[in-house]
Amino acid sequence: MSDDSAKRAVLVQPGGAPLTYTILVRGFAASVALAGRADRAQVRFDLTLTVTHPGPGFPDDIEAVMSYEDIVEDLRRLCRESNVPGADYLADRAADLCLSHGRVRRVQVDVTVPAADSSDSAAGTSLTRARPDRA
């Protein structure tokens, strides 16, 4: 069975907004080379992505839906950067990476960075970004 996704209509809610579903990425952790730290901090990411639904009759095929694996691969690449300024930078870049995928409508990113001294509290940031609605 072939899938002609270009011809598939997008489902809409009352008011005309596209029908969406949610992808959760919880507890993604990776070591990151943060600026000013000798160690590589184990940084945690939690993401909530609002994604455009592929429409009625979509095939049971990974190409028809947004895969969280694409997002995880983007996060892995981000965490390999060196001299990362901090949690704000990581959250900002993670949001940009998520919104670079055309199906992602909105993303909330929470990033937690442990303190350099294990006796201190962790710090972090949270941000939400949305793709502008198309006119």
UniProtKB/TrEMBL annotation:
Residues 115-135 are annotated as: Disordered. Transmembrane segments: none annotated. Residues 23-129 form the Dihydroneopterin aldolase/epimerase domain. Residues 115-128 have a biased composition (Low complexity). This is Dihydroneopterin aldolase/epimerase domain-containing protein. It comes from Azospirillum endophyticum. The lineage of its organism: Bacteria, Pseudomonadati, Pseudomonadota, Alphaproteobacteria, Rhodospirillales.
